[in-house]
Amino acid sequence: xxxxxxxxxxGFAGLAGFAAAWAxxxxxxxxxxxxxxxxxxxxxxSTFEAPLNEAVQFGSLEIIARNCYKTPPEEPPxxxxxxxxxxxxxxxxxxxxxxxWMFASSPAVSALEHAVYDxxxxxxxVSEAGAAEEGQGDAPEAEGDQPSSTxxxxxxxxxxxx
Length: 162
What we know:
The protein is an alpha+beta fold. The chain is built from two helices and ten strands; from the N terminus they run H-E-E-E-E-E-E-E-E-H-E-E. Strands 1, 4, 5, 6 and 7 form a five-stranded antiparallel sheet that branches. Strand 6 and strand 7 (95-103) form a beta hairpin.
């Protein structure tokens, strides 16, 4: 009986260590994608930000960034965004050109194919408005709202009061 208990505790501690390592290396979710576009006719390059789930115009293209992930600073740099790109022209129906993930480190892996425009991902970042909202959540809790915690060895158990 004691051996089984020790094995369960060791297994739980190993699982907790694995979960902590995974959480430390998980990608960071940003609230806007930083994109760059090339107009092949004028040879102009434009850098623009695309907030998540909002349409952004680049020439005749309408771009919607659905997700944007960035690796933590301790890992090799990588940013990836899930984009929907639609060509909207007044004289014809809208044509969906691209839906999928674009990667900053290798834009040719999943590229937008268009005769006039190229678009690629540069980075993912938290907007100033998103950073301000995160800062508001750092306010100290009232004393009655503090969770009680018990520490036994390497394991901490927190209980929330109703």
